[in-house]
Amino acid sequence: MATITLSNVSKDYGGGPVLRGIDLEIREGEFVALMGPSGCGKSTLLRLIAGLEEPGGGQIRIDGRLVNDVAPKDRDLAMVFQSYALYPHMTVRENMSFALKQRRLPQAEITRAVEGAAAKLGLTALLERKPKALSGGQRQRVAMGRAIVRNPKAFLFDEPLSNLDARLREQMRYEIRKLHRELGATSVYVTHDQVEAMTMADRIVALNDGAIQQVGSPQDLYDNPANLFVAGFLGSPPMNFLDATLAQDGALVVEGQTLARVPPPAGLASDAAVTLGLRPERLALTTPTNSVPTRVDMVEPTGTGRVVHLALGAQRLKLFTMDTRPLAPGETVGLSVPPGAPLLFDPGSGTRVA
Amino acid sequence: MSRALALRLEPYFYTAPSLLLIAAIMLVPLVTGLSYAFHDLILLDPLSGDFVGLDHFREMLNDDGFWTALRNTVVWTAVSVALQFGFGLILALLLDRPFPGRGLVQALVFLPWAVPGFLSGLTWAWLFNPVIGPLPHWLHGLGLLATPENILSDPHLALWGPIAANVWWGIPFFAITLLAALQSIPKDIYEAAAMDGAGPLLRFRRVTLPLLAPTIAITVMLRTVWVANFAELIVVMTKGGPADATQILSSYIFTLAFQRLDFGYASAVAAVLLLLLLAYAAAVMVLRHVMTERA
Lengths: 354, 295
Fold this sequence. Notes:
The structure holds two protein chains of two kinds. By secondary structure, chain A is of the alpha+beta class. Chain A folds into two domains: about 5-235, Rossmann fold (3-Layer(aba) Sandwich); about 240-345, CATH 2.40.50.140. Helix content of chain A is about 25%, strand content about 35%. The longest helix of chain A is centred in the middle third of the chain and has 18 residues, at about 165-185. By secondary structure, chain B is an all-alpha fold. Chain B has one domain: MetI-like (MetI-like fold, Orthogonal Bundle), CATH 1.10.3720. The longest helix of chain B has about 35 residues, at about 5-35. Chain A: One of its GO terms (molecular function) is ABC-type transporter activity. Chain A: One of its GO terms (biological process) is carbohydrate transport.
């Protein structure tokens, strides 16, 4: 178990910076998700921690020890790769024993560790098989097993579930989370999947364009996103963004209609243009007479409820409702925005203003 | 014709054209060539052509030239293939990692392969000639030769001349195939091994070598058969001499057939070479099968 500290870490492959000024403290036993779209630098950041890449600048410390120049094999970290990277010429048992053999542990101890991990992951019957005789889900487990037998200082996961089908992914999410609870080991988990980040992480590090956008608990990022990127990345269906003007008295005007009122914010010019963020599930349908009239564009049933596409003037937004009343495209319905739902962003910089 | 019979015969009709073609271009010459081995067939002797049974093979047992050639074939093949493989592997490993100008170096490395064997034999013969070539002087300077003389005219050393040329000429084959095999090993397997605590040497031994093994087995087998049959360099550089000291079986066959014009005896030696190579190939196949079964 370890703390991992990054200060002002940067990386450049020669085509512009991949990571800029990364400051991050990963606490002992914590499960941290590095989340962002492809190309945001999250995998590079993980590989820097692993030692598979060298940082261009800054310092990486594991348990306070500077590891910038320490080879991966001497960092005592275990990594689960997206491709699993199992040794194709070795059986499951040999795959899982490989690291322990390098450390010249006694054979009895290796056998005990491998069989213990195999039992935990349901691999006991597969120990003598080679990777090519395993299904995708089983290979994934072997990759996990290879990591946990080592009892490393920390686990690094590089999109470990992205090659699995949706059902298996959900199951493995649960199992990884459970393993983490049992082992209590520091874990860094790279994902582009907001559901994985939300459901698994103690804290999410949202990355975009090589820089940290926000760090916090999943709920905190969901409720209080620091900018448009974080707000738009988390949530399905995603947050609605509307062009609005904010009057001096706190009225939020969209397409000439006052959609909601917020406490009059300080420091904003009168009738300032803002980007209004609204979570689809926080909006409510009412009758057109006592709220803002909007037109139903399309209705998508999801099973749990319905996603209703609404047209408000020239702008579109989505609303998620569990209301079961009949809705037809073209119908006019009322849109109600409860207090506390509106999030305001600066349309230029994308940062949150209220 | 009954329908059942027609259905039974149908596949044979489809395959007949290619089978006939294969028989015509492969089996007929092979059988003809083998049949010469049992005949007394000397091109300049119009009275020859009788069936002589196993006479040629009995003659071979007492033919010093044959035994020298057989010994030379083993040395020539083993040393050439081992050195070609060793240098080829080193080159492939060097070329596997990126460096500035890799494309150019790759092209240069593969150049010897493009030189006709005949031409490289001539060039190497000149290199070993003390009048115009530097090699004897270098070898003398290094203390490997007492005097800067042509090793090709020394019966004890002459075989090393064609071997040197053969190694130079054959390295690219191993470099190309091993490089291709190296590049097909996923990079993240090395990274996983690095994370698992394996240093560069161990990664080479536990990851690279086992994953290259199938390619190594097949290329070494191919090259061995190939090199054992490869008489060109020897014919060009030493003509099997001095005093037949550098004959290998294939150059001996060439000499017997096209200089002594004794086609019958040449065919008998060729049949023995064919048998030896078949036995070798079968042994390698069995070995490979046993190894993959166990692995």
